[in-house]
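Postdoc handover notes: sequence design on the structure in folder B. Input tokens:
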């Protein structure tokens, strides 16, 4: 007998089967079909088909994924194809002569006899030449290197010694101290009479200076020179602009040459802290600038440096030469301030000013200067500007030089091994006036340095020289006129005038 629950279950199962059969037969309603899709999607989301074997190691899902992986690997190995060679009819072998003809065209390893890219296999049509023909001309471009000369550059290019000597003599008055490094040389070598002689120079063209072009050609077997004068505009270049994130980048974007910007920064750094320059400040750069009609340019030295600040003191600096010394002056005519050297020689102070026991005489007496221990032959520098009032042997001082600096001040330098100054000579601060030695009453190489005020020795450490150049009178007027002339220049390159190239000089030997 069946239990009542079993009968109900059987009846329910039969009803579900009848419902499924009717649904399949009748196509089912849209709501029923949507329900099956959702159930299938839910089942797919619950079943992890590709489990991560690095997660939940030892779980049922992990073992199921491991079994799947092993099954796929076994199936791939079972279904993998073999690597047996495919059968094919062998090609007939070529004769050795035919193989040699096509050998250079074959794509084969060099180890198996391929000659691709190296040479062609010769045939009966190839006949050896008794000698290879020469090119009628060879065109070269050489360049002048650093510490180089025109003659050495031509010799390296293959020009004969005789032609080098001829060219050097033809342009001796045009090259002056020598050609600038980097100058290109366009060379044409002609046909030679035999293989054991160098090729003759047929043509040579180069730029001797920015305003002079030279061309040398062989006419009737003789080298002749032709000079072409080139007009050069020497109006200075003026660049102005506003400082952005960087003064250097702003000036470069405005077209200022790198050499001029670097000089500008060095001059400005003597007056203000470069870190205090901020966005909005205006810079004014004027530099020497030579422009040839051919388009070549030469950037010279910086002439004027101006900085107009949004807040703070502005700067106007002009380069000026006074008494043979070129330095930077402010717009008011005040020049650079220069202090005393830290030491007139590279060495340590071994003895100070005052009473001490003399190492040679053996008794205590006044040491009227300071001593600097230094290596024998080290250069001795002038402490500041002055003129040489004495240079020669001076008793216990040995070889001695005395400099007068004005206002009753003078300096003395003793025990030199060699004197590099002469009486009456004007010297500049830092100029070499002699070399360390041990002449006179001395126990070893050192410099004895003295300072005099109105003829009496004083402690050299008690005085620091400060020299400030100041323009006055006619020189100040000329300085201000030059400053006004430069500040009146237009910004950027000046308007180009018509070409005024002079006619080429007459051709001559």
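Designed sequence:
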């Amino acid at each position: 007998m069946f239990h009542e629950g079993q009968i109900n279950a059987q009846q329910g199962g039969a009803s579900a089967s009848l419902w499924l059969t009717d649904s399949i037969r009748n196509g089912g309603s849209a709501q029923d079909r949507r329900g099956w899709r959702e159930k299938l999607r839910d089942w797919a989301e619950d079943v992890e088909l590709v489990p991560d074997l690095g997660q939940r190691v030892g779980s049922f899902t992990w073992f199921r994924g491991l079994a799947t992986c092993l099954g796929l690997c076994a199936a791939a190995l079972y279904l993998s194809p073999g690597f047996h060679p495919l059968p094919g009819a062998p090609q007939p072998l070529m004769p050795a002569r035919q193989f040699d003809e096509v050998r250079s065209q074959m794509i084969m390893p060099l180890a198996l006899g391929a000659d691709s890219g190296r040479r062609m296999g010769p045939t009966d049509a190839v006949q050896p030449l008794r000698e290879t023909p020469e090119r009628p001309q060879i065109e070269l471009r050489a360049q002048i290197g650093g510490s180089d000369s025109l003659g050495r550059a031509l010799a390296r290019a293959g020009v004969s010694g005789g032609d080098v000597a001829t060219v050097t003599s033809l342009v001796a008055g045009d090259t002056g101290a020598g050609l600038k490094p980097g100058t290109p040389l366009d060379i044409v070598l002609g046909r030679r009479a035999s293989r054991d002689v160098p090729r003759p120079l047929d043509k040579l063209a180069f730029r001797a200076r920015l305003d002079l072009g030279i061309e040398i050609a062989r006419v009737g077997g003789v080298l002749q020179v032709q000079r072409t004068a080139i007009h050069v505009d020497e109006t200075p270049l003026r660049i102005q602009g506003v400082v952005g994130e960087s003064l250097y980048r702003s000036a470069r974007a405005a077209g200022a040459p790198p050499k001029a910007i670097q000089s500008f920064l060095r001059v400005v750094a003597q007056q203000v802290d470069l870190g205090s320059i901020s966005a909005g400040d205006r810079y004014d750069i004027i530099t020497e600038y030579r422009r040839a009609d051919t388009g070549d340019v030469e950037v010279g030295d910086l002439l004027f440096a101006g900085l107009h600040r949004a807040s703070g003191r502005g700067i106007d600096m002009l380069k000026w030469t006074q008494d043979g010394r070129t330095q930077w002056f402010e717009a008011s005519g005040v020049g650079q301030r220069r202090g005393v050297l830290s030491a007139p020689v590279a060495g340590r102070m071994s003895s100070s000013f005052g009473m001490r026991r003399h190492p040679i005489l053996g008794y205590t007496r006044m040491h009227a200067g300071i001593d600097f221990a230094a290596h024998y032959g080290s250069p001795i520098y002038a402490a500041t500007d002055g003129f040489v009032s004495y240079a020669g042997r001076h008793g216990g001082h040995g070889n001695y030089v005395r400099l007068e600096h004005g206002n009753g001040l003078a300096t003395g330098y003793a025990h030199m091994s060699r004197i590099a100054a002469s009486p009456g000579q004007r010297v500049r601060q830092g100029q070499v006036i002699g070399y360390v030695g041990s002449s006179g009453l001395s126990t070893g190489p050192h410099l004895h340095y003295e300072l005099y005020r109105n003829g009496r020795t004083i402690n050299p450490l008690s005085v620091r020289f400060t020299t400030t150049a100041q323009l006055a009178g006619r020189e100040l007027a000329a300085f201000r006129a030059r400053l006004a002339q430069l500040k009146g220049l237009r910004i950027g390159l000046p308007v180009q005038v018509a070409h005024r190239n002079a006619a080429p000089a007459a051709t001559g030997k």
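Context for whoever picks this up: The first strand starts at residue 138 and ends at 143. Don't rerun without checking with the PI first.
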